[in-house]
Specification:
The complex is a heterodimer of chains A (450) and B (480). With 450 residues, chain A is an alpha+beta fold. Chain A is built from ten helices and 17 strands. The longest helix of chain A has 17 residues, at 73-89. Chain B has helices at 2-14, 70-87, 120-134, 203-207, 215-225, 242-254, 259-262, 371-376, 427-432; strands spanning 19-35, 38-56, 59-65, 104-108, 140-158, 163-180, 185-190, 197-199, 229-230, 234-240, 292-295, 316-321, 324-325, 346-347, 356-357, 362-364, 380-392, 398-410, 413-419, 422-426, 434-437, 444-453, 458-466, 469-476. Classes of the chains: A alpha+beta (450), B alpha+beta (480).
Chain lengths: 450, 480
């Protein structure tokens, strides 16, 4: 960890060489350790110390972006020069209205010493516990335990000084028999919140009850979606629907449906970067404080997120959801997704199903089929079961679904009161907080052999 | 630099490691994206550092550091060593590497025009012109054009004495028109979706893509799709264009023949494979005309290089021969499991990542057909063009692909355009239904710049040589 005083002093010195009207420096540094295992042995144990320093220089409405991973003063100056050179030859971006000025953002605790201090031997010790636990019931395991720390700093010549240190810890476990597998996942900023042994037990139990899965015909089924499955669906729904780009391009299912009913009235989905029950991060990558934004509230389409530039395209202020300079062509994107819980338990929902399917998680979802209808396809994985007369009957072979999420989530029979944090590709700065859902109809369109 | 890497390796040898290698990697990237009349991305990035890989007490350790100082490289070496020792506490069987020839060599990819030397205004000007011309129809809601360039320098040294220097330049570009008429949204891309087509070439590759020549057709087809009939749910013969077939090869042959996946080490993320070792030389993967090779030696292929990140020389290796599964993509650690030496497919996406088995250029070899004759020979069917969506199960059996556009084939002629086309199937059944592949004339090596694999996630640039091919009685649409 470099620390904010050192970083801002360095950037203050570097920025003196800038001839631009405005200059922004984004710093993202990380120290990450990952222990990956398969067949109940560690096969990959890696450590990385890296940084990304992104310069955005502004001449009028011309913008140049260049980045480096070196904090050496001369390398930073060379990168700044590069950004200025690019800006010189750029076309004006008529939607750009200058860099933001300073705003206050709430103090949130996102850093834990215990996570930062976690060493390869600590990870190996925990992973060994997973092996021993699973081996007692004759299951092999695969997965990964990741720990790390990092810091995000935002500096600009209009006075923005944002700094947030963070830690992150996650584990995913797949327990396997010859004919089945089970999955469990944990995520927190604090390593102590993650109990690998308890998660191993969940994965093993899932694999155990899924042994010798039977084929199930594709078709329309009542369904229980556990949090990892819900999060996987909404990771895609978020990507195609809740960002500014899809809204402007009209490819988002919300583009022409603000104020209209898009899902069941029990469904509310929002983004909140300040909620510490999740992986909080209080400002975006241009230093604008994050606002709470509802996408769907009680089933009604409410809005999407914007950064300053995409907001200007439609006359809306930034909601504090900018991606790093250089990636802003993708528009603003929510990173701290919450799906409102309900009032039921998972077991109550299973008990209410006459005949249906329980899904632990999905694999390889794709949402580009028909984005205005939010049609997704994907496969079930690591724990799919038939429910009959309110009880899990047996494991079933994996199924392909192809369905509109607007259709599927317009027929909600129940939502759990508990939610779980599910990692995503952006889990250093956010994740998805998802409950278990009971849906009345979900379309499976294909089968496979395992 | 070689001295610094070798000094760290000498130090590790002194600590009694079984094996170690050190890689300096410097990657310079340039990314340009124009949306409508705005350059919304023009960024350059430089990423440099050293990764050290160690086997000690029969287990792996790896550490990377974003510094080129001798002291920091040694620190990374020590961290890799300590990590290997921690990993060794769970080892059941000690890691053994297949022998390989040791090289001291220099490799440079072919490049006539360094894209980083091409004036900024020239690159922006081309993308702007494309965008302007795509938007000459008011129904084009958004026009996107982009270009991406990569310049990579690698120096690899090992305790076995390898010293390999490589300079690789990769270039690509493409564009998409998104059409909207108030109720329907459709898109059309050129030369391929997902940011275009790529090669290990210089800017001359972008100049040769005929980008401007195809703008009008792309715009018109995007608009035509707004009123096209939906693709029916049916079972019919299909012809798949080269770029979509490239992704089909990628997902249903490239990934399942990665031997690390087969051995289970990718289970936690990407999954396993149906192409198990006991099926090697037996599994009838496809029809007799299906021949697929992994060839890292094709000049200009996006999956081409001189040496992989274990110092193994680039090779051409058979994967499917006359429809039979005969080979895997292998590494020095995995190849001995099938009694072979590595065929050189270990690559990392930077100094900070451990090399893993990656596709090179996985090519479906061409057949003899003229495309015109193939369409004429198809009584009823659908022609599928250019990828839009992709999904496959975690053993690579059940797949579903969506494409941007399709055309009905009626009595051997292309007919009406169809929107939102999908096809789905099971991998071996699908490839066994392949009864015609177009000739070398239609064969092109399609660059895929965004292949994801591994934890932490790594992105590889790979390629697939393909020509249009026909498959009999395939499920089309969202039928069961």
């Amino acid at each position: 960890m470099t620390g904010q005083d050192k970083l801002f002093a360095l950037f203050d010195k570097v920025v003196r060489a800038s001839k631009a009207d405005e200059t922004e420096i984004l710093y993202i540094g990380n120290n990450t350790g990952l222990t990956r295992f398969a067949n109940s042995i560690i096969h990959q144990n890696v450590n990385e110390s890296n940084a990304r320093i992104v310069f955005r220089t502004v001449f009028g409405k011309k913008i140049g972006v260049a980045s480096t991973n070196s904090l050496i003063f001369n390398d930073l100056k060379a990168t700044l020069r590069n950004a200025m050179e690019i800006a010189k030859y750029q076309k004006e971006n008529k939607y750009f209205s200058g860099l933001p000025g300073p705003e206050s953002y709430p103090a949130v605790n996102t850093y834990y010493d215990s996570t930062a201090a976690y060493a390869p031997k600590d990870r190996a010790r925990q992973v060994k516990k997973i092996f021993i636990r699973a081996n007692k019931r004759k299951f092999l395991t695969a997965g990964a335990l990741t720990t790390g720390d990092g810091e995000i700093a935002l500096f600009n010549t209009k006075g923005v000084r944002c700094y947030q240190p963070y830690t992150s810890a996650s584990v995913n476990i797949i327990a396997m028999s010859d004919t089945s597998s089970g999955y469990a996942v944990g995520l927190s900023r604090q390593i102590e919140d993650i109990d690998p042994v308890a998660l191993a037990d969940i994965a093993v139990e899932k694999a155990y009850i899924g042994k010798k899965p039977k084929p199930l015909e594709a078709g329309d089924y009542e369904i229980i979606l556990e949090p990892a499955a819900v999060a996987a669906l909404f990771e895609w729904v978020n990507y195609i629907g809740f960002g500014s780009k899809g809204f402007i391009d009209k490819t988002s299912f919300l583009a022409d449906k603000i104020g209209q009913k898009v899902m069941d009235e029990t469904v509310s989905i929002f983004d909140d970067g300040n909620d510490q029950s999740s992986i909080a991060m209080p400002f975006d990558f241009e230093g604008v404080p994050k606002k709470k934004v509802f996408f769907v509230e009680k089933g009604i389409g409410k809005g999407v997120v914007f950064d300053r530039t995409s907001g200007n395209r439609v006359g809306t202020p930034s909601t504090g959801h900018a991606l790093p300079a250089g990636e802003q062509g993708e528009g603003a994107m929510p990173l701290n997704l919450f799906i409102e819980p309900g009032n039921k338990t998972r077991d109550e929902m299973i008990a209410s199903v006459k005949r249906g399917v329980l899904v632990t998680r999905f694999h390889y979802i794709n949402g580009f089929i028909d984005t205005p209808k939010a049609v997704l396809t994907g496969m079930t994985r690591d724990g799919t079961y038939l429910i009959e007369d309110g009880r899990i009957k047996h494991g079933v072979k994996n199924l392909r679904f192809t369905d509109s999420m607007l259709r599927a989530f317009s027929n909600v029979k129940g939502i759990s009161k508990d939610r779980q944090l599910i990692p995503s590709w952006w889990d250093a700065v956010g994740c998805i907080s998802a409950p278990t859902f009971h849906l009345g109809s979900f379309k499976f369109t294909g089968t496979t052999e395992f | 630099m070689k001295d610094k890497l070798n000094n760290a390796l000498v130090w590790l040898k002194g600590k009694g490691v079984d094996y170690a290698d050190a890689r300096m990697v410097r990657i310079e990237t340039e990314s340009i994206k124009v949306t409508d009349d705005t350059v919304d991305t023009f960024s350059r990035n430089v990423n440099v550092g050293v990764g050290v890989r160690v086997i000690c007490n029969g287990a792996w350790g790896f550490a990377g550091v974003s510094s080129l100082t001798e002291a920091d490289i040694k620190k990374a070496a020590n961290k890799a060593l300590q990590t290997a020792k921690a990993s060794a506490t769970t080892v059941k069987e000690k890691v053994k590497l297949a022998p390989t020839e040791i090289y001291k060599d220099i490799y440079k990819s072919p490049c006539e025009k360094d894209p980083f030397d091409v004036p900024v205004h020239e690159k922006i000007g081309l993308l702007m012109e494309i965008s302007d011309r795509l938007r000459t129809d008011s129904r084009i809601k958004t026009a996107e054009s982009s270009a991406d360039f990569y310049k990579t320098k690698k120096i690899f040294c090992s305790t076995e004495g390898a010293e390999i220097e490589q300079d690789i330049i990769e270039s690509g570009a493409g564009y998409t028109a998104i059409a909207y008429d108030g109720k329907e949204v459709q898109k059309r891309s050129y030369p391929n979706s997902h940011r275009g087509d790529f090669a290990t070439r210089g800017y001359e590759y972008v100049e040769g893509l005929k980008l401007l020549e195809n703008v009008d057709r792309t715009r018109e087809e995007a608009v035509q799709l707004l009123t096209a009939d939906p693709c029916p749910n049916t079972v019919t013969d299909i012809i798949i264009c080269g770029s979509q077939l490239a992704l089909q090869v990628h997902e249903s042959c490239g990934h399942p023949t990665e031997l690390d996946r087969v051995l289970g080490t990718e289970i936690s993320l990407a999954g396993g494979s149906f192409m198990q070792i006991d099926g090697l030389d037996k599994l009838k993967y496809g029809s007799d005309i299906v021949n697929i090779n992994a060839d890292a030696t094709i000049p200009g292929g996006l999956g081409s290089f001189g040496y992989d990140d274990e110092g193994v020389k680039a090779q051409r290796a058979p994967i499917i021969r006359n429809g039979v599964h005969v080979g895997y993509l292998t590494s020095r650690e995995t190849a001995p499991v099938i009694g072979k030496t590595s065929n050189g497919t270990m690559r990392a996406d930077g100094w900070n990542r451990l090399p893993i088995i990656r596709m090179t250029n996985i090519n479906l070899e061409p057949g003899e057909w003229e495309l015109e004759d193939l369409i004429a020979d198809t009584k009823n069917g659908i022609f599928f063009d250019m990828n839009k969506s992709w999904s496959i199960d975690d053993k690579r059996l059940n797949f579903q692909f969506g494409v941007e556009c399709a055309w009905e084939i009626k009595d051997g002629k292309l007919g009406r355009m169809l929107k939102n086309p999908l096809y789905t199937g099971m991998t071996p059944k699908f490839w066994n239904s392949c009864d015609a592949i177009c000739s070398k004339k239609y064969w092109h090596v399609w660059g895929v710049p965004n292949c994801g694999k591994g934890e932490p996630m790594q992105t590889a640039r790979v390629a697939h040589g393909t020509a249009p091919a026909r498959f009999r009685q395939v499920n089309v649409g969202v039928s069961k």
